[in-house]
Protein 1
Amino acid sequence: KGDIFICTSTVGYNQSILGNLDEGVLQEKQDFIKSLYADNLSKCKECWARYNCAGPCMAESLYYNGKLGSIIPVKCKLTKHLIKLAIYYCHQVYIKRPDILRFIQERYCK
């Protein structure tokens, strides 16, 4: 039909239509999506992991309770745990093999 969706995973959900190919993306929909940024969500804005997580996946929140931007508590817990593991892993590499981190930085972080 020419509808533009937030994500291919949300095709078929009217809430996730941003506009259409004829009229483009609607400003009100853009503003709504911007409002779902982690700093704007009450349950996210004080979370230490919000900049690594960036808030709930729109498709997952839509599937979970039919609402864009809704928080899925178990997903938050899992995401924070994975971030902690990544920090721990990087710290262990830094302590035990700093040469690997230098290699990664020189090769990929330019």
Protein 2
Amino acid sequence: RRMDMIIRSIVQDSIESIDGKNMYESVYYRDFDVNKLYFLMCRILKSSLNDSRVAEKFQITNTQGMASWFLSLNLENIADNSKNICLHLKNLGKDVNTKELKEIYKEVEKTYLDAMKAHYNSDRKLADTVAAAREQLFNKCDNFFEKHNSVDVFKVISNIKEMENQICNIARIVIDREEIKKDEK
């Protein structure tokens, strides 16, 4: 949850960077906090695999441990991509339609918020909706790049698309978790 809260603020500040605000340094330091939390999570999960007492203390099964690792990996990568977007936004030319780019990025933010809501509420239907939104968002990204064909736009769009892939991975974690629950019954 702490990683999620930090990422929400990183994404919001990264979106504000589209309007010319230089938020990179602030985003950079919060991304560093996400990285520390990711490595802490990895150490805990690795310890739970090596020592059953640790697994019992944190109530982690192997399946839950793998899902938690995959979730934290995707969260860490989302923070990295958002940081990279913030960095590359500084170099966009004046002819780039920032309003359209901001709308695309806000759609990514919404899918992220929905994916995390699906995760917290174990809402498979919402997770399915998040996963289904990826193709349409990719088309918007491709159309934007065709209109504003430059290296810096490519870097921003590539990071946005990668973020959306990672968000879909989080949705798949929810879907898989619900499938496992069905199989256990």
Protein 3
Amino acid sequence: MISSLGSIFLATFLVTSAVNAEPKQPSFGYLWDQTCNADGKVEKTSRAYTPREGDILLFDDMSPFWAKLYSIAGTGPPFHAGIVFKKTDGSFAVLESGPDDTLHVYLLDLEPRLYNFKGSIGVRQAKRALTKDESEILTNFAYAQEGKRYAMWRLLLQGTYFRHRGGIKEKHLAATYDDRTRWLCAEIVVSAGALVNLLDRDKVKATVTYPLDMVDDVRIDLSATYEPTVYWSSQK
């Protein structure tokens, strides 16, 4: 016969084992909405971030170097962008070209990416869920791009006459490609979004889109398929 003390230890062991056996649920932090009340004052409210495939993440590391370089190209922060997709195991990740000043395309698990980034993150959520086929297309596209090079020379050209952005060159030369050997960060986001019908490739041209263009709907209007940009936080 098991003693009373032994029963307590056994019960505690079983409960602890059951808790430890449960998989840890990822925490994706919070999104902060800003609205104006009747008095014209800005009110902030937070809600849990529930990721959706196709969400656009906009990163700003507050770098003076990138601020200067982007100003030459006639734009500004945020300096980087990525798009959320599902890995083959069903977990959320971010497809990014050149994250954190690197020179390749990476597939980064979403939860640690959000919490480890040093800077601010804007989130533009997709208004609808992808279909099963669209989800597979986005996943396959992401894996096919992994390891490719960041298009550093094309980035440098953005500050020169040879870029396609603006005027008649943009009208005739700007394009959205389904595949490239090298990618700029916003370029790969737009191409991925176009493949799954979240972005209109005839209206949003990947080769002339910068991260700042996706923050609001001034230069390109994403409001049909994307919510307004809100800021991410690790705290409620």
